[in-house]
Amino acid sequence: MNPRNVKILDQIRTEALVRGIPEPDVERWMELVRPSALLTLDGDGPVVGRFGGPIMLPADVETQQYPLVATFDCAALPREATDLPLPSDGRLLFFGYPEEHGMGEVVYVPEGAAVVERELDPESYPACSEDFAENHDEFPQGDIHLTIDVSLPFVGTVGAPPPVYLVPMPGHPHAEALAEVWADQWGGAALVLGGYGTDCNGSDATEIAVLCAAAEAKAQRWPGGGTPSSDAGDWVLLLEFNVYRSGGGAAIFWVIQREDLIAQRFDRTQVLVDWNP
């Protein structure tokens, strides 16, 4: 673990003890630490992708219904940046629309695949509306720099002030207080790859993804058939995008079953939007 993250975790331990949380409970909580990647326009970390266009897709892939948020070069992502079984090469394109009923998609383009550039003008999207172009123009644009970070559960909403929606955490009687310590320490970023993520509408994004996937399977819309897992522990947060607009803020969560990530079944990704006008 790099010195930056060792310092962050030491600060969390110290602050938790100052707040009177018993040391054994603090250490048990620290066992939940997961690696994650903060992705920003600035910083001195390596460039691992790009916010915004161009949109480069194979000719046989349909034009996506939502604007492009970011493209990642999988080979440029250090393996230790997350605990996700990401592809070792190729590119991942994340599409999303941060509105109350927004959605999104993920497309994986294997290394060496022939691609053609698609139109970037949001007027070309079927989801077009009066404020679509304005919304799209407020997305970040430019190179994505990576900072290897650490992640802990939030167990509630992060804000000012942060109302906490308690989520039972077996074996962690001080989960609320420990989550508040983490929320006070977390610096945030426009994009976060892996980790726990912030909450989605007062709940963990993976738990909501389980319900959404079950509904799709019941409606026989689950790609490839079969039944998605009902255990949130089988799902992982792939990416979280936080965008702050003139009309409000939103977070988009791309969540996938770990086994589907290994199998590169990105068509099974569940995309959730937490819209705060």
UniProtKB/TrEMBL annotation:
InterPro entries tied to this protein: DUF1963, YwqG-like_sf
Any Pfam family hit: DUF1963
Name the record gives this protein: DUF1963 domain-containing protein
Organism: Lentzea waywayandensis
Organism classification: Bacteria, Bacillati, Actinomycetota, Actinomycetes, Pseudonocardiales
